[in-house]
């Protein structure tokens, strides 16, 4: 068994999450980072995509959850994490970081983020 971590970094989306009505109307930019630990021995030996984690499917699951409105980043991150765990039973753990860029905080701020792992 050979453990490895697959990472999808800085996936960017435009979505309508937030507690304020303006956020849900105007929207904002979000980034999502995902790390998935699993056994990578078979794909590293076979060089066959059929044996590997489907990165495209991880992106699609993330996009599906991003497109459903949430008030809280915690809720959104939990939904993304759960959808990945349900789709890929062979994963040991998943870490999801969701960031809202330029959040309406009354001052200049690059982002606010929530990270969950299980």
Poorly predicted regions = none
Fraction of residues in helix: 25-40%
Q: Which outline best applies? A: elongated
CATH superfamily: GTP cyclohydrolase I, C-terminal domain/NADPH-dependent 7-cyano-7-deazaguanine reductase, N-terminal domain
In terms of DSSP E residues, the strand content is 35-45%
Structural class: alpha+beta
Protein described:
The structure is a single chain. The chain is an alpha+beta fold. The protein has a single domain (3-117), classed as GTP Cyclohydrolase I, domain 2 (2-Layer Sandwich), CATH 3.30.1130.10. The chain contains four helices and four strands; from the N terminus they run βαβαααββ. The chain has helices at residues 21-26, 41-46, 55-66, 73-87, and strands at 3-15, 28-39, 91-101, 111-117. Strands 1-2-3-4 form a four-stranded antiparallel β-sheet. The two termini are 20 Å apart.
How do the helices and strands line up, and which of them pair or pack?
Elements: E1 3-15, H1 21-26, E2 28-39, H2 41-46, H3 55-66, H4 73-87, E3 91-101, E4 111-117
Antiparallel strand pairs: 1-2, 2-3, 3-4
Helix pairs in contact: 3-4
């Amino acid at each position: 068994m050979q453990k490895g971590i697959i990472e999808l970094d800085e996936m960017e989306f435009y979505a309508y999450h937030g507690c304020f009505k303006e956020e849900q109307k105007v929207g904002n930019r979000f980034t999502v980072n995902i790390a998935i630990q699993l056994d990578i021995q078979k794909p590293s030996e076979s060089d066959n995509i059929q044996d590997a984690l489907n990165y495209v499917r991880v992106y699609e699951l993330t996009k599906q959850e991003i497109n459903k409105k949430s008030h809280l980043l915690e809720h959104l991150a939990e939904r993304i994490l759960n959808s990945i765990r349900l789709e890929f039973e062979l994963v040991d753990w998943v870490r999801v970081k969701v960031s809202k860029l330029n959040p309406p905080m009354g001052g200049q701020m690059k982002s606010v983020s929530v990270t969950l792992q299980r």
